[in-house]
Write a structure and sequence with these properties.
Elements: H1 2-9, E1 15-19, H2 25-34, E2 38-42, H3 46-53, H4 64-73, E3 76-79, E4 90-93, E5 99-100, E6 103-104, H5 107-119, E7 125-128, H6 136-149, E8 158-161, E9 180-182, H7 187-198, E10 204-206, H8 210-241, H9 245-252, H10 276-288, H11 293-303, H12 305-319, E11 328-332, H13 347-357, E12 361-365, H14 388-393, E13 396-399, H15 408-414, E14 418-420, E15 430-432
Parallel strand pairs: 1-2, 1-4, 2-3, 4-7, 7-8, 9-10, 11-12, 11-13, 13-14, 14-15
Antiparallel strand pairs: 5-6
Helix pairs in contact: 1-7, 5-6, 8-10, 8-11, 12-13
Length: 433
């Protein structure tokens, strides 16, 4: 406790390096710069850095108008030059941690640790934010930093883990007001990490050690993954039984205790749900020789939802005496969630592939995603505006991501048949998932 109090008492601005300037790293770098730190945003993607250097943000949570003053003042400096990572007080690793054939791929974390290790000095602090399995900070990152620097974690430099909680497109819960879990390999490290985040986050939640913090992130996402899978499976069978799953969810949500509403959808996307729980499952299987059956089952259910969407649309077209082969099908929203351009692991990819394989003429509309490069093989000529004419010309419309920018009254008025995967529409020609 005394270490935390002493660290918080030291309020001087730090020289910060944030490795990775994506959906997690860029908001973190910008917020730290706004709080008075001098921040280098490092990324290996030279095109990303070029855009940032001219004040053009590719992350919707960070506007150009928010980015440009920080560039002008020098508080934030994007770079693809490794030498700009030198002489840091605090460094944060916020790089992707994908799955490769079901196995965690920590290549980006390893590369970042080696890079920072070459520039690590006594008294500096390194924080891992990338989602991973329990033990990564101490078993993987610490040895890499130590080998590259010749220093010892805890004794010579501070090291900790703080799970990211970025929710793209969420204007209510932002980096600033979402409680931040922090940890360290020892008390002094935890205090240093606590102090850094307390300089720009309203609430900091210290936990006992890095493994607890690493598991916290996986617990949060596994909880959502499993419950979404539950309601997705119920939605499939409720439809077959002729029961309105959405009405049942509304009714259950009136219970003030023991229930939390989750809603069905066309599948899960982003990094958190399709990938993060598998990190925990892999770690348990490799270390303990067991499987987390709930995670495996949730993966199976959620991965099959795009196929269910295509089956429902095919059946809906058949009822209207229209074969899916040759049908013009308009997908509304290619992102994995509303009000964001994030297409990572989006179920729209699988749905597009299945419909195309069946011979459908697939078109798409998503105001948050640029036409170039074409997502999921959907050419620019297949990207259209949601006009009454285009709606009327479609044999089926599938609402996948319910962006606020869509005119739902126009969709309900002009589309001849809609499969609504997000429960935003009503009408005689509209089916809810």
């Amino acid at each position: 406790m005394q270490e935390i109090e002493n660290a918080i008492a030291d309020v001087r601005p730090r020289r910060v390096v944030v490795v990775g300037q994506g959906y997690v790293g860029l908001p973190l770098a910008v917020r730290a710069a706004e709080a008075g730190h001098r921040v280098v945003g490092y990324d290996v993607d030279a095109d990303r850095i070029k855009r940032l250097m001219i004040g053009e943000s590719y992350v919707e949570d960070i506007s150009d108008s928010r980015l440009q003053p920080l560039l002008a003042s020098g508080a934030y400096r994007p770079s693809a030059d490794t030498s700009d990572c030198a002489d840091f007080d605090v460094a944060v690793i916020s790089v992707p941690t994908p799955l490769r054939d079901g196995i965690p791929d920590l290549t980006h974390v390893e590369d970042a640790a080696r890079l920072l290790g070459r520039h690590l000095s006594r008294g500096a602090t390194v924080v891992l934010e990338s989602t991973t399995y329990p033990g990564t900070t101490e078993e993987l990152v610490a040895p890499l930093l130590e080998r590259a620097s010749g220093l010892t974690a805890g004794a010579d430099f501070r090291l900790g883990y703080s799970p990211e909680r970025i929710d793209p497109g969420n204007d209510t819960w932002t980096l600033e007001n979402t409680p931040k879990v922090v940890s360290g390999v020892d008390a002094a490290s935890r205090a240093a990490v606590h102090h850094f985040y307390a300089s720009f986050v309203e609430t900091v939640v210290p936990v006992a050690d890095c493994r607890v913090a690493e598991l916290t992130k996986l617990l949060e996402n596994t909880f959502r993954h499993v419950n979404i899978a539950l309601v997705n499976e119920l939605a499939v069978f409720a439809h077959d039984l002729g029961v309105d799953i959405w009405a049942a969810i509304d009714a259950a949500a009136t219970k003030p205790f023991g229930y939390m509403p989750f809603t069905p959808g066309p599948g899960v996307g982003g990094h958190c749900l399709p990938i993060d729980p598998s990190y925990l499952s892999w770690r348990v299987r490799r270390t303990l020789g067991h499987t987390i059956r709930f995670v495996e089952l949730a993966n199976d259910v959620n991965n099959r939802m795009p196929d269910h969407v295509v089956q429902r649309v095919t059946a809906g077209l058949n009822e209207r005496k229209t074969p899916v082969n040759g049908a013009r099908i308009l997908l509304l929203g290619l992102a994995y969630k509303a009000n964001t351009g994030d297409i990572r692991e989006s179920p729209a990819r699988r749905i597009t592939e299945l419909l195309t394989a069946l011979g459908a003429d697939v078109q798409a509309a998503d105001p948050h995603i640029p036409d170039d490069p074409s997502p999921f093989g959907i050419a620019a000529s297949q990207r259209i505006e949601v006009t009454p004419e285009h709606l009327k010309a479609s044999d089926a419309v599938i609402l996948l991501a319910d962006h606020d920018a869509f005119d739902y009254s126009a969709i309900a008025a002009h589309a001849p048949y809609v499969l609504d995967c997000r429960r935003r529409l009503t009408g005689a020609q509209i089916e809810a998932l």
